[in-house]
Amino acid sequence: MHAITTISRETGVSEKQVTAVKELLDLGATIPFIARYRKEKTGSLDEVAITLIRDRHQALEELAARKQAIVKSLIARELLTPGLEQAIQDAGTLAVVEDLYEKYRPRRKTRAMSAKEKGLAPLADFLMAQSKKDPFTEAKKFVDAAKGVDTTEDALAGAKDIIAEAVNEDPKVRGAVRSLFEKEGIIQSRVKKDQDIQGAKFKDYFDWSEPAFKAPSHRVLAMFRGSSEGILTLHVLVDPDKAIRIMERFYLKNHPSPCRDQVQAAIQDAYKRLLGKSLEKECFQALKSAADHQAIQVFAKNMKALLLAPPLGEKRILAIDPGFRTGCKVVCLDAGGDLRHHGVVFPHGGDRNKEQAGKTIVDLVRRYDIEAVAVGNGTAGRETQAFVQELGLSRKVEIVMVDESGASVYSASDIARQEFPDEDITVRGAVSIGRRLMDPLAELVKIDPKSIGVGQYQHDVDQKQLRQALDDTVTLCVNQVGVEANTASRELLARVAGLNDTIAANMVRFRQENGPFLTRQAFLQVPRLGPKAFEQAAGFLRIRSAKNSLDASGIHPESYGVVEQMARDQGCRPEDLVMNADLVNKIAPEEYITDALGMPTLKDILSELKQPGRDPRKTFQTFCFDPGVHAITDLVPGMRLPGIVTNVTAFGAFVDIGVHQDGLVHISQLADRFVKDPGDIVTVRQQVRVRVLEVDVNRKRISLSLKAN
After folding, report:
1. What gap in Å lies between CA 112 and CA 98, rounded to an integer?
2. DSSP string covering 247-276
3. Structural domains of the chain, with CATH
4. How does pLDDT run across 425-448, given as a tens digit for each residue?
């Protein structure tokens, strides 16, 4: 209950809603299923809120596990007191827990431990009392050559080591100085000796400093990368005198004392040798964690936009993977995405080759009744697109430039080898380009998201968190769109709520052996797809040619009964309600409310009846680059050009304007107003019109603007 209360307070979601989400997750319900089909239980929480509750609960469970491990360690060493145990259990953050444990942490022998073994603890206590007695006179009592204390200076040094360690381990001191680091810490990077040439890409950080906890994630991650590559030294610093003054307030007494200087020296040593370094390490961890989180959120947001890019749909496609020297790989796909032909043409190898290539393309378009040509946007992409446009194909044949990021990764993958065991990687890559035009989501689920190139420092962030965020994103997108059960690939089926790789493979095998699914109930005949998986998955699996028209909708089978009742009340059959807005509008949903079925689900049912299985993605729009611009040398400041957003980062957006080098729209150039998050203005694959600000041909840098003027 403590976790439920904490999450409720942090998220602003009621404890009842948090409890409902937790119970559903514990029962094995997936996030898409909960968000879509259990709105009555959660109060219509969306996927974002449910995911936040799940992640925060996992974090609190990890905190509880750490507390339990610490308590267990303290019990084993007979160090646990009731007060300490209560303080640990009451701690709200891992930092506070670790502060409480600092004093008792098993460690290698320290200077303070050695001093205690020499019997100097009483001298340390004497100094801490800060009486008016002379510390040197008192220290003489502890001189003992047999114990390794040869002089009064040795005795005082050992006593100060004990004090320094005690100050460093004091939770209140650590908390106060940590607060100083968080408020006033400066992150500072410097280039290492003789690394300025080798590390030129980090030039901006050769002599850089800024408030640590206000630094944007991309700069923090850049500095961390420079440090990990041995180019930069990195520190988080505060005013040491200010930190020491804070520490002194806890231990120095106001009255004058000859011992005061000794305690003050010990406190200074505690900061410089112990606490300062410890908290700097903590700051590095906190900064990295925050930067990782922001970068992962940007990556996930970009990935979502890419996955939900408008599909051309089931069209017959001629796809071209462009190339100069090795020619252009050409494949023809039917409307289902199956390979019907492949070959190579050489449109960039002289007039004779170009003429022959043109005849081949025209013949293939006619022979396979091609409806669209997909041209990869890699090397020779613009030139190949221009070549196809010059062929004078029918206006009905769309010529589209397709982002081929990740196609080469797919072509060499196990998935591609299983799909096309008899074809080489060039054929597989061209097929991927064509299929990506037909349905970006269906094709991109086959590729590791990190290979698609829409992230920021994706190889530097916490890989476990990144994998979780991207898995969530892909799964949510797949279920938001819905999946046609009779044509979906194994990879796409595996992303449906409640399914996995094994069940997906079994579904494909079942189709091959028994023909297409005719009803959703037939899913239960698939090995390993039991009632629980059926409950989670059925609403997201569509059967276009089903006997029951509801099986093609997003209405869950568990709600078919209420639809049948609605139809009876309207004097018609359930299928008569489908796509009949006039009839559906006559239905009063409040008449069908029950303890298990509320207004949110009823409204969803009526919406689905009007537009069953509606694809939430936008309508496909053909895009063309400026025909007069092909290379960076063609660019002139002031030009206004069409472009496609290829990546959104914390500092701006990258836009492809057709010159084989993306331009950057800095965050300050995204709008005529202040922009905090570039994702609020643009998304990946968005078509935009930009103005060229600056062009640096030598460094291949293009500065663009989205501002009106």
Report:
1. 20
2. HHHHH--SS--TTHHHHHHHHHHIIIIIIH
3. 2-102 (1.10.10.650), 111-302 (1.10.3500.10), 317-438 (3.30.420.140), 501-610 (1.10.150.310), 632-705 (2.40.50.140)
4. 999 999 999 999 999 999 999 998
